[in-house]
Amino acid sequence: MRRIYFIIILLVSVGFFFFVGVRAGDIFPLNEMFNKTENETAEETYIEEQETEPEEESEPDLRTVNMVVGGDITAHVPQIDQAHVGDGEYDFSPSFEIIAPYLQAADIAVGDLETSQAGPDMPFWGYTGYSGYPLFNAPQALSEALADAGFDVFTMANNHTLDRGLDGLYNSIDHVRSLGVETFGAYKSWEERDNPLIIDQNGLKIAFVAYTYSTNGIPVPEGHEYCVNMTVEFEDISPVIADIEAAEAAGADLIAVFPHWGGMYSNEPNPQYLRERAAQMAEAGADLILGGHPHYIQPIEWFFNQNDDGTERATLAVYSLGNFISNQHYPHNPSQYVEYGLLLDIDLTKNMDNGDTWISDVDYEITWCYRDWRHRVLPLTPVLNADPDEYNLSQSKVEELRDWQQRNIEVVEKYGHSDDKNIALSIAESMLNRAMTQHQ
After folding, report:
1. Of 83, 120, 406, 432, which residue is 20 to 30 A from 171 by alpha carbon distance?
2. Rounded to 5 degrees, what angle do the CA atoms 267, 231, 411 make?
3. Whether residue 379 has a cis bond before it, omega within 30° of 0
């Protein structure tokens, strides 16, 4: 009987200590054991989910740069007189206040500065002070207003490059660069001349090359042939080809050539061999050929070649962008075409993963220089869709402008621009598909 009591007391004692131990978690830490198992299970589940969960697909690194390009920029005496505000001060800013947003929205805005910016005290060939045609020298307030309006780069290779001689050219280059604006086509040394201007915009490197057909009989000083790129009438373009090749060797992704060429006051390239020269530049590696000098808008033409890797490459050629701003007008000039220009809007794309580059889009706006309203440069599409009073126009003038807009569009399209642009866009699409495929 005492053995039975002993067994009962032993069992009660063991039960009591077991109960206390469980409650205290000291003797048998079941909660800890259980929780640890639960945590380990959760962690293993999370790891398994991470291993089996598909990774998010990344996109190829594509960069696009928008470039806007305007035509010839000249300042005749009436423009200079209008800009004079007294005491030797000038203000050209009203001329650009309406077109400025188009320039400022671009990553790079380029124009053809076809006048000296030498200052008022630079005599040359009997001319001094400020002057218009035939030896242009505008107040430096002109380039200041152009820079404020949004221009980033000027080509300075044209037939008026030496209108104030070599020292006047140096002054012009120095002043423009002091505004933070890049220049090309005219230089201050051989070293500058032999190092192509390459602008790195968002990882896309664009080279700028410019040549003129002439300096209007003003001789290039001996020993200073570097001061302006010139090839007479573009009969021999081997120097242009050499500069295209040098730009490519220097690491340019895309190459823009600005030829100042051809006969004036014509809606087509004149002489016609300029079309052959454009084709040769395109074959050599030029991606953009953006012409000036004729003072009329001329057609857009596309050229298609193959890259070394077999992919197709499109080259855009605009034989003449016409006038961005000037005082040229009819009947002083042969036609009202001199009052219009082409503002080109180009998208350029680079695949940063493999270096492919291409033209991804092109558009344009016909502009008009409103001589009777401080030579304001007006984009015609919004102007023609607005109330005429907003732009100091009569309804009859609006209809006239509408007619000239259409005439200029017909000139642009003469060599099949829109149809060939579709081919260029299909090349762009194939390059995009290639980027996506290679990135997978």
Report:
1. 83
2. 10
3. no
| Tokens encoding 153 | 């780069």
Burial (0-12, 13-18, 19+ Cβ within 10 Å), 422: exposed
- What tokens appear for 361 in the block? 């889009």
* Owner of token pair 């092109």: 362
Count Cα atoms within 13 angstroms, Cβ side, for 428: 19
Asked, as a colleague might, if the bond just before 269 is cis with ω within 30 of 0, I would say no
CA distance 317 to 26: 87
Dihedral of CA atoms 110, 287, 319, 239 in degrees, nearest 10, equals 90
- List the strands of the sheet with 197-201, edge to edge: 197-201, 204-212, 254-260, 288-290, 312-318, 300-306
- Paired residues of 116 in beta bridges: 137
pLDDT tens for each residue of 28-44:
443 443 344 444 444 55
- CB distance 299 to 417 below 8 Å: yes
Give the model's pLDDT for residue 440: 76
Residue 264: give the domain boundaries: 63-435
Is 226 found in the same domain as 204? yes
Residue 217 forms part of a structural domain: yes
Cβ-based neighbours of 66, under 8 Å, separated by 6 or more: 105, 106, 107, 108, 345, 346, 347, 348
Q: What is the pLDDT of residues 147-161, one digit of tens each?
A: 999 999 999 999 999
If 0-12 CB within 10 Å is exposed, 13-18 middle and 19+ buried, where does residue 211 land? buried
* C-alpha span between 273 and 235 (Å, rounded): 9
Q: Kindly indicate the confidence band of residue 374, based on its pLDDT and cuts at 50, 70 and 90.
A: very high
Spell out the SS3 assignment of 266-291.
Answer: CCCCCCCHHHHHHHHHHHHCCCEEEC
Exposure of 192 in the CB half-sphere (CA atoms within 13 A): 16
What CATH number has the domain bearing residue 88? 3.60.21.10
Instruction: Answer yes or no: is 58 within a domain.
Output: no
